[in-house]
Write a structure and sequence with these properties.
It is a single chain. This protein is of the alpha/beta class. It is 36% helix and 23% strand. It has a six-stranded mixed beta sheet, sandwiched between helices. It has a four-stranded antiparallel beta sheet with strand order 2-1-4-5, with helices on one face. A hairpin with a 5-residue loop joins β9 and β10. α4 crosses α6. The longest helix has 18 residues. It starts with a strand and ends with a helix. The chain binds adenosine-5'-diphosphate (2 copies). The site of one adenosine-5'-diphosphate has 11 residues, from α1.
Amino acid sequence: GARIHLENLTKIYPGNPTPAVDNVNLEVKAGEIVIFVGPSGCGKSTCLKMINRLIEPTHGRIRIGDEDVTDMDPVKLRRKVGYAIQASGLFPHMTVAQNIGLVPKMIGWSKSRVRNRVEEMLDLVGLDPREFHGRYPRQLSGGQQQRVGVARALAADPPVLLMDEPFGAVDPITRDHLQDELIRLQHELHKTICFVTHDFDEAIKLGDRIAVLREQSHIAQFDTPEAILTN
Ligand code: ADP
Ligand code: ADP
C-alpha cells in the first residue's frame, strides 16, 4: 500500500454554495483500512470520487505516497487506485472477464497478461474462472456481482483501493461473508483502503481506524474502533 494524504480538500458543486466537502485534512497510513462512516449526504462519496479523479476538487491537494496526484492523468492514476462501488458499477454489456480486464487493458497490458490476470482475480474472490469468465453481470447473483466488482478494482494491482458501499446491495449473510473475505484479502495484499459505509457495525468490523463524518465531511472523530466504542 501507499499512504494517502488529503490536504484542505474541498468540493463546492455548481449551483450549491454550501460545500459538499469542506476543508478535510486526513492521512491514511500505508496498508491501513480507514472507514468513512456518516449519514447520507455528508460527502463520503464525493471524497472518494475526488481521490479517484472522477470529480475535480474545488480546493486542496491529494497525495498518494510521495506523489501529488491532484492533477494526474486519470489513466495513469488507474495504476495507483482501484475503485469498487455497488454491484451496479459493472458494465452490463461486458462479460465478467471484460469487466475485470478493463483497467489492465486500458493501461496497456498484453492480451495474454490480461487473460491470466482475470483468471487469477476470479480465483482470488472465490469464483471458478471456467464457470464465470463468460457470463454477463445480469447472470450473477448480487453477491457474485460484488465479488466481480472487487476483482475488477484489484486487477491492475493498485496500492490504493477505494470502496464505496461495496457490500451495500447484498443480503446480510452474503455481506458478512464478503466482509470476512475482505479482511482475509487485506492480510494477503496489504492495500491502503478507504471504505465508505453508513453501517456502523461494518465500520467497527473492518476498520483499522474510523473517520466519523458529519455534514460537509467534517471529521467528528478519527480513531481506532476500540477507542471510538469507549467514547
Ligand atoms: P454521501 O456519499 O455521504 O451520501 P455525497 O458525497 O453523495 O454524500 O453528497 C454530498 C452532498 O453533495 C449532498 O448534499 C449531495 O446532495 C451533494 N451532491 C452530490 N453530488 C452532487 C452533484 N453532482 N451536484 C450537486 N450536488 C451534489
Ligand atoms: P459512474 O460515476 O457512472 O459510476 P464512473 O465514470 O465513475 O461512472 O466510472 C465508470 C466505471 O469505471 C464505473 O463503473 C467504475 O466502477 C469504474 N472505475 C472507475 N474508476 C476505477 C478504478 N480506479 N479502477 C477500477 N474501476 C474503476
